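To illustrate the input format used throughout this study, we show a single complete record. The first block contains the structure-token representation of the backbone; no residue identities are included at this stage. The design step must infer an amino acid for every position from geometry alone.
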């Protein structure tokens, strides 16, 4: 049985320490020592020293552990100039952890040595939250194109923009809706990609 809780995010120590690595480790040690915790899952930080220290603390205290691994991390780590320290930390984490959660069979295929540890957890959405949506972005034109994914080249953002350049020459009123991405960084990243393809950034509606 797995019970989700917001104990960590609402804990006063976490609110004080926020993202300072040393203080997050201190908070986790306090929680592991004082809360009834049987399983520690590291969702982010699998290439940072903080994630490794937290996992080691959990293992030393006899807790079951798990980490989430994303394809982007693996692509970055396998780059020729990928930092050696980050790769070493990641290798230690996937070796020491009890379970590895990935979001697709494709990502699982990038970790063939750890097949027995891997759990595939496909992305999903809460139907309750979807039903609460009162202002979905409408399509204003007859011709529609949908892109779902974060705004990175490895996710195909350059391919969809190139396709738009080609398609718009024959279908001028084509409308493309982008679903996904970070609201803080995606507009800037998307604008830069549009400029690279000679597209007018003013045609971008981030509503």
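Output of the design step:
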């Amino acid at each position: 049985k797995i019970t989700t809780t917001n104990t960590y995010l609402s804990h006063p120590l976490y609110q004080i320490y926020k993202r300072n690595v040393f203080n997050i480790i201190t908070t986790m040690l306090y929680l592991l020592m004082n809360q009834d915790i049987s399983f520690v899952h590291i969702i982010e930080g699998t290439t940072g020293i903080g994630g490794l220290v937290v996992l080691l603390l959990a293992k030393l205290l006899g807790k079951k552990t798990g980490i989430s691994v994303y394809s982007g991390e693996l692509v970055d780590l396998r780059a020729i100039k990928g930092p050696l320290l980050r790769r070493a930390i990641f290798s230690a984490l996937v070796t020491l952890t009890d379970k590895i959660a990935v979001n697709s069979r494709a990502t699982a295929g990038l970790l063939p040595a750890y097949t027995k540890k891997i759990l595939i957890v496909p992305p999903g959405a809460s139907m309750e939250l979807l039903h609460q949506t009162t202002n979905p972005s409408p399509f204003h034109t007859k011709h529609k194109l949908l892109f779902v994914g974060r705004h990175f080249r490895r996710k195909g953002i350059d391919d969809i923009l190139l396709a738009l350049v080609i398609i718009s020459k024959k279908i001028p009123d084509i409308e493309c809706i982008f679903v996904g991405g970070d609201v803080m960084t995606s507009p800037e990243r998307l604008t830069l990609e549009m400029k690279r393809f000679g597209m007018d950034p003013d045609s971008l509606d981030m509503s």
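Structural context for interpreting the output: Confidence is low (pLDDT under 50) at residues 1-11. The first helix runs from residue 7 to 10.
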